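Design request, tokens follow.
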């Protein structure tokens, strides 16, 4: 892995109030025809400071996209609260419209995000028109395209999505978010659909936007390698909860949770044998007792948890919800026992 971004601006480090925060957030969905409800997000505390990039990491089905939608106001929490700039998020249409002027979404598939019948100019100007912008629309669109790395911007005004490369389409999507001058963007797998040669360019763009505009970002990804290259802090999700969090250096160079260790083990640059997780993937309708990961845990399966004296707790004793503090935290009986023994 290459060097991570320097100069973390996390809440704990800066001492400032978070820009975006989630407090004990839960999102459940009713089951079909009497089946159990799905606890997609089941108690999450998460803060993002001004100018900070946080990576939300986990495999498919862990709840990270539902959490992102709740933070965007696209999904109303069952319980808990989302706050922005110190104020609780309201869910009437006027308040949400104002909120989405300050927080924008960047999706993973630029082809699906862009209307094939709309020119680049129309795609980027759409947000301005929705929000009733009364200034110089052409200048604003040109500025957004230029910031997204499409220069000279006028050369792209009349092009259609099919005339652009994948990287250029993603830059158009980013320009569509930037045109409203947001304070925070939520990027859901922002480079997953791009060729490897283009991914670095888009990540470098996101970092430059943070430097130039003070932009905050939540980057939703299954790729810990991406997190290493872009994030200040990492939150690892499993089955609706954050199971490990801390600075990118703390989590990715010294992972404490067996799930994080398994995710890291399959990276090309990882040392040792990759950990192959057995058992069923996360199912939010069937949350097991004890540690949510215990049925797939390589530490429990190997007998190491038994030797440490925590195997029974792993299977039966539920772990507390991690706080939103910027310090390194882990929800794992085995990791806690190890820390206690070494302390």
């Amino acid at each position: 892995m290459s060097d991570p971004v320097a100069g973390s601006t996390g809440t704990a480090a800066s001492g400032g109030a978070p820009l975006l925060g989630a407090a004990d957030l839960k999102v459940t969905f009713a089951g079909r025809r009497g089946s159990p409800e799905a606890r997609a997000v089941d108690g999450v505390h998460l803060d993002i400071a001004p100018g900070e990039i946080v990576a939300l990491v986990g495999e498919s089905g862990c709840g990270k996209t539902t959490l992102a939608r709740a933070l965007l106001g696209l999904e109303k929490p069952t319980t808990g609260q989302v706050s922005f700039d110190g104020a609780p998020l309201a869910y009437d249409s006027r308040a949400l419209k104002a909120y989405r002027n300050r927080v924008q979404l960047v999706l993973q598939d630029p082809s699906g995000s862009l209307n094939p019948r709309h020119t680049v100019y129309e795609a980027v100007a759409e947000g301005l028109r929705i929000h009733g912008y009364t200034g110089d629309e052409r200048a604003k669109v040109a500025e957004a395209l230029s910031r997204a790395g499409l220069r000279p911007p006028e050369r792209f005004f009349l092009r259609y999505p099919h005339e652009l490369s994948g990287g250029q389409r993603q830059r158009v999507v980013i320009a569509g978010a930037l045109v409203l001058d947001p304070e925070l963007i939520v990027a859901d797998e922002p480079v997953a659909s791009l060729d490897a040669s283009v991914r670095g360019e888009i990540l470098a763009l996101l970092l430059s936007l943070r430097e130039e505009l003070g932009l905050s970002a939540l980057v939703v990804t299954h790729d810990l390698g991406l997190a290493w290259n872009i994030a200040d802090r990492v939150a690892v999700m499993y089955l609706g909860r954050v199971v490990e969090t801390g600075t990118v250096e703390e989590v990715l160079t010294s992972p404490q949770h067996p799930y994080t260790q398994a995710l890291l083990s399959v990276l090309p640059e990882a040392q040792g044998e990759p950990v192959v997780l057995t058992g069923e993937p996360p199912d939010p309708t069937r949350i097991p007792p004890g540690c949510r990961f215990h049925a797939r845990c390589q530490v429990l399966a190997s007998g190491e948890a038994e030797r440490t004296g925590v195997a029974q707790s792993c299977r039966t004793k539920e772990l507390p919800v991690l706080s939103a503090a910027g310090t390194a935290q882990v929800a794992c009986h085995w990791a806690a026992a190890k820390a206690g023994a070494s302390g």
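Comment from the thread starter after seeing the answer: thanks! DSSP finds 15 helices and eleven strands in the chain.
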